[in-house]
Each structure stands twice: as structure tokens, then as C-alpha cells.
């Protein structure tokens, strides 16, 4: 470890301890805990026991449920690091809460994804590293650098090792680019398919049809987020009705707001693949759930930020199956 590397400190927020420790193991670095005091009225005080003066600080974190508690805790901790004279504060947000509130869908609604960006900047963050933002345009809400990493590279490594051909299916028109990128990484020669759906209310949609040929094919429905799961299960049913053989669901962020039983007990669903962007330790007993670790991927990105090298080189290595 050179002298420059000695000026780097990595913290793992309470909700990301497991992933943070895996990243630390990959990098060969100690991941420090965040000190936390909760007062009787619910107020929180978060701080570092270790000096961070003139150091580059990475915070491994996510703002999944409870979203407001996790977001507020992160803002408080960033503020404490700024006031402790940290040179640079980089948030590695494996899940960016409120990302789906990225526009005014109707009058008098907030754009909360922008509000969160403002809060992160105001608290003292100098850069945000995240993965699969619900809408890549959220990067434009920031006046600081944002690395919106692509989860396709993590999934391509897993699916490539299975030695099978898959048709990648987007659950809606908006995810077609994401599905195309994963399909190209797999290089199987298969065309993608798209579920034609109409959203009738939050977390509620109607499947209108399937665009593309899935008959006699193994399919992977690829999305950024699984929340309640109802829409993506309807998509799986539509694909099965069109003659799909094996149906796998893959998503970077598994929220599972209504639990996992609906997937486990559904005979149409063969498997659900997610990353550990959110801690799913309580779901480890489910046989149909497979969790991919993003520790190596994020570790390489953090190392690139420390050494000021290109993230494109990391993408190239994953594209070549290295």
C-alpha cells in the first residue's frame, strides 16, 4: 500500500455491512463501522471514531427500506465527515431510493429524485457512485460527478457461465436498451423481446402483449427493480403463454415489498436472480432465489477511483469474460 492509498478510508453503513466487508476483502482494506447513537425521541447521531482529516472517504451505503431512516442517517454521516475536514466524500450508493420519482407524472407532484440529489450535495458529498439508476437522466440532477454503473456486466458473467442461450426480455418499452445491452454482452445471437404493458396505477399494470419470438426459448426477464412483483409475474405468465420454456427473472435491486413467497410458490417462475445491492439475508432460505455479489465489481470501481484510472477498462474486462 503506497502513501497515497494511506489517505483513503472506507466506511460501511449499518444496512450495507455485509457487502462493505466483501468489498474490503477484495481490496485488502479494513472497512470501518459507522458509530451511531439513537436518542429517546428517535434522533440519530452518526460519526467516525477514526480521523478523516484530508482523506478521501468512501461510504458503502444504500437507501432501501426504511428509506427515510436510511437516507437521513446517510446525510447526517456525510455532514459529520465534512465537518471533520474530510478531503473528499464519495458515496457508493448501491441502491438510490426515490429514483422512481424522477418527473412530475401529474400536476402538483414533487420530483423527489432531484430533492435527494440536492440533499446529498448540500450535506457534503463530492461524488456519487451508484448502479442501475431507474432513469439514467437522474445523473443530470447533480452538480457533482455521478458514476451510474451498469448491472448488466454482473449478470452477463453469471448467465455466460451457464452455457445456455437466452432471449433477454424487457418488461416494458423503457427497459429495451438495458435488455439489448445484456443480450449483446452474452453474444448468443438471440433477439430481445419486449413486454407491451400499460401502467394503470403505481405498482399496477396491464399486459397488452409480447413483442418478439419466445416460443421454445429460455427467457430472462431483465429489469432494474423488483418491488411488489405483481407486474413482472404477469409478464412471466404472458411469456409462458407464448411458448417460453424456462422463465428466469433477473433484477439488480430486489425490494420484494410483498415478500418472496409469490415467486417461490409460482410454478411458472424457474429462478429469480438479484444482486446484493440490498441485504437479503432474511431471504437466504428460498430455493428459487440466487444472489450475485457486486463486491468485486464495486471493488474494481473503487480502486479505479483511488488510482484515477478508467472505469471503461473494467467494463471491457467483464465484456471479455475476465
Automatic annotation (TrEMBL):
It holds the Pfam family Pribosyl_synth. PROSITE patterns: PRPP_SYNTHASE. InterPro entries: PRib_PP_synth_CS, Pribosyltran_N, PRTase-like, PRTase_dom, Rib-P_diPkinase. The keyword Metal-binding applies. SMART domains: Pribosyltran_N. Its EC number is 2.7.6.1. The keyword Isomerase does not apply. It is an enzyme of class 2 (transferase). Residues 9-124 form the Ribose-phosphate pyrophosphokinase N-terminal domain. Keywords: ATP-binding, Kinase, Magnesium, Metal-binding, Nucleotide biosynthesis, Nucleotide-binding, Transferase. This is ribose-phosphate diphosphokinase. It comes from Metamycoplasma neophronis. The lineage of its organism: Bacteria, Bacillati, Mycoplasmatota, Mycoplasmoidales, Metamycoplasmataceae.
